[in-house]
Amino acid sequence: MAYQQRRSGGSNNARPQSRGRSFGGNRSGGRGGNRGPAKKFIHPSKFINQAVAKADEVEYVATNKFADFPFSASLHHNIAKKGYEIPSPIQDQAIPHIIDGKDVIGLANTGTGKTAAFLLPIIERQTGISLRPSVLIIAPTRELAQQIDEQFREFATGLNLYSALVVGGMSVDRQVRELKRRPHFIIGTPGRLKDLINRRYIKLDSMTTLVLDEADRMLDMGFLPDIRAIVGGMPSDRQTLFFSATITPDIQALVHAFLKDPVTISVRTSETSEHVEQTVIEARDKAEKIEILTEMLKGSEYDKVLVFGETKFGVQRLSDHLDNSGIPSVAIHGNKNQSQRQRALKQFKDSRVRVMVATDVAARGLDIPNVSHVINFDTPQNYEDYIHRIGRTGRAGASGKAYTFIDSRR
Q1: Which DSSP helix (H) or strand (E) runs through 47?
Q2: How far is CA 216 from CA 19, 106, 107, 233, in A?
Q3: 200-237: pLDDT as tens digits
Q4: Which residue has the higher pLDDT, 247 or 379?
Q5: Are 158 and 78 in contact (CB under 8 A)?
Q6: Distance separating alpha carbons of residues 299 and 266, to the nearest angstrom
Q7: How far apart, in Å, are the Cα atoms of 402 and each of 300, 303, 329, 361, 391?
Q8: What would the mean pLDDT of 289-293 be, rounded to a whole number?
Q9: Which residues are CB-contacts of 252 (< 8 A; sequence separation ≥ 6)?
C-alpha cells in the first residue's frame, strides 16, 4: 500500500482508502485527566528537513582525551571500561571548568553526553570527602534521574561513593532508608525531593554541589516553585551546574538567581538534529494513520522505532493494536507505574521489541541507543517538544529519520 508523504524533494499522492477504529483516547496527555495547555499550531514545513551528510560537516576536534583529565587511576579505569577515549564537545569543554570549581551553563542538543560531562568531574572532586550528602542532582523525570544514577554507579565503582535515587512512583520507605545511610549523591525529581526535604529526611546545609539537568524541561513541567524552594535552602557557597537544550527568558532569570559568574558552554549545532531527515505523511483521520503506520512498521528498515502519541490511553491502544498486528511493541505513559515503565524501556533498549509507543514522558533525556526512526503519530504540543522528540534519533553523529503525521484536509 502506498501512502502520501511530503519531502523537500517530492511527494507520492496515493493514499489508502479503508477506515478503522479510532485510537484518540482522552485528552489528558498523561496529565492525570486534566487538560494541559492548548496545543500550538506548527506549520507542516517545520517538520521537513533534509539530513546533513557527514561529509558536509566540519568535524569537531577535541582538545583533550579522557586520559588527559586529572582523574584518579580508579576513575580512569572505570571510564576506560565504558570504552570512552575521546570526549564529546560538551565533555571536552565543560569538564576542565567543573574540575576548577566554576559554575557552568551547558547548552547542548540531546544525545551529546551531558551526563558524563558533569558526573565525572564531580565524582573526582568528591573522592575522599567525608561530608555527606554533598551533591544534589535534580532532573525533570524519573527515567532521566534513574539513568543518571545508573551512570553514577558505573563511574563510581570501587570509589566508596554512594547515591540515593529519590523520585516519585517508587517506594518512599526504601528511599528514606537509603537517605539514612547518608549517601554522597542525592539524585531525584523536584516533587519527591521537596517532599522529603519538608519531612526533614534530606538536609541541604551540607550540600556543596547542585546540578540542574534539563532545566528547560523542568520549567515546562511547572517545577519552578519546587526548584526555587529547594535551591533556596542550599548554602550560597556552592558550585552550580546548569544544563539545558534551550535558553529562554525564564531560564535566564534562573541563571541570574542561582549561579555566580558562570562559564557558558554552547555546543548546540542547530535547532533540530542535523543528522535527522524529517518528513511529513498526510492522512485524513486516525483510522488512515493507523493503517499507514502499521504498513510502515512491517518494513525491515524500521529497526528501532519510537512512536509518539498525545494521550496515555491512545498510546496504550496503539501499542496493543501493533501487537495484535504482529508488530511487537511496548508502551510507556503516565498510567504505568515506575517498574512497568522501567521494564518497557529495558525491553526496547535491549532490542527485545523494536517499537515503543510513548507520550512525551519519553521525549527528554533518555539514553536509548540506535533509534532508527521517530514517528509523531500525533503532533506535539509545541515546536520545542518536537525538537526533543526527534532528538531521540540521530544521536552522537548517527543518522536518523523522523516522520510526522499531518491532516491531509488542512
Answers
A1: none
A2: 40, 12, 10, 21
A3: 999 999 899 999 998 888 887 788 899 999 999 999 99
A4: 379
A5: yes
A6: 38
A7: 16, 13, 18, 18, 9
A8: 95
A9: none
